[in-house]
Amino acid sequence: MTTPNSSQSRVHSWAESFKVYRQPRVIGMLFLGFSAGLPLLLIFSTLNTWLRDVGVSRTEIGFFAWVGLAFSIKVLWAPLVDHINIPFLWRLGKRRSWMLLGQLGIIVGLMGMAFTDPTANLAQMAAFSVIVAFSSATQDIGLDAYRIEAMDTEYQGAMSANYVMGYRIAMLVAGAGSLYLADFYSWILSYQVMALLMGVGIITVFIIKEPDRQETPDEIESLVKSNRYLDQAQTMVLNPFVDFFKRNGWVGGFILAFIGAYKISDIIMGNMANPLYIDLGFSKSEIASISKVFGLIMTIFGGYVGGMLLMRIGLLPVLLLGATLVCLTNILFAILAQVGYSLDFLTLTITADNFANGVASSVFIAYLSSLVNKSYTATQYALFSSFMTLPGKFISGFSGVIIDHTDYTTFFLYAAGMGIPAILMVIGLMIYDARQKADESSEKPTEETVQ
């Protein structure tokens, strides 16, 4: 197995580590990250705030987490994104055309949500949320493939950091911005404005150029032309999975399990953070100012710290740091539930949590990118990101039920405990990596043997 650390050709100086953020394609990830990040909160925490604000029960709000399963099953249509050109958009290229199609779907879904009353038609709100989720997942497939193909592995930490920054700026807009608009005007206007802001993504798609990608085997084109559909399915769908396990052997199963475990604590916790704030008595403007604005600053800071640490000490040690920080900081939410209304303690909790998530997110994206074979970029990355979200999204659907039958403190302690397996699994990967390097060193012929 090729380990993530071994993919880095050399250790970079601090000066080189800073200069990487001046690369044009690294800068471009700011805008693509914004496009990817804008829809997320609008179907999760911001929507949860809207629903709780108008009196929807926590149990029903919890079930809305299952809308996010669209991100967890996107691997099912990722092969199409990898290999099929959209006929009327073919001049844009595979990556840009699929991103554009996803962006248009997001706009349709958000406008539908804007004109839906959740107290009168909760099912319709859920349906439009699903449209946004599936469209956003489609955009993500094309965007992730673009990011991985645009630059080499050693630059993926910087690409991820800028992606996270753009993503978090969008989350600030979709989080704080939407809450301010809802507080001073209405939820309808708020979601209309968010739909219009997806124009940033559309403009970016028309400005950027397709990456110089490593094409999939020539057999794909010949199979498509010959209409041998069964062979097409095997080549487009099965081969990426076979390739992954062929390169990694039995460790591939452990890696997929680790991917599913790494973000589970954060996903479970995040589903009920905003309902907690509402029930503790914080106003929408206070949530926006502290949780979104200040939280964004700490997330960006954590993302850049994670990117630089990756360049200096490698992926696995920073993965361990991120997993540990996320687990520990989730405990602060349990304490906040006991403290009650306190702007100071809310600020402390948001500071620690968002810094931890910034570090963990940037390095985890880089880790997933290092596992991809660029012959199957979109499909394999979609596989990884699906495993990353599927367990957490499914379990988080019951979060409202847990809180309604216990309390917030119990729930957040439970969410923190769900992060322990990820910590243990990173340690396992580090031990395996050390043994692999030791075996490789022992197999190299000594100078005396060569002579």
From TrEMBL:
Residues 25-434 form the Major facilitator superfamily (MFS) profile domain. It is a multi-pass membrane protein. Belongs to the major facilitator superfamily. InterPro entries: AmpG_permease/AT-1, MFS, MFS_dom, MFS_trans_sf. Its main location: membrane. Gene3D superfamilies: MFS general substrate transporter like domains. Keywords: Membrane, Transmembrane, Transmembrane helix, Transport. GO terms for molecular function: transmembrane transporter activity. This is MFS transporter. GO terms for cellular component: membrane. The chain crosses the membrane at residues 26-51, 63-86, 98-116, 122-143, 164-182, 188-208, 250-273, 293-311, 318-339, 345-369, 381-403, 409-432. It comes from Kiloniella litopenaei.
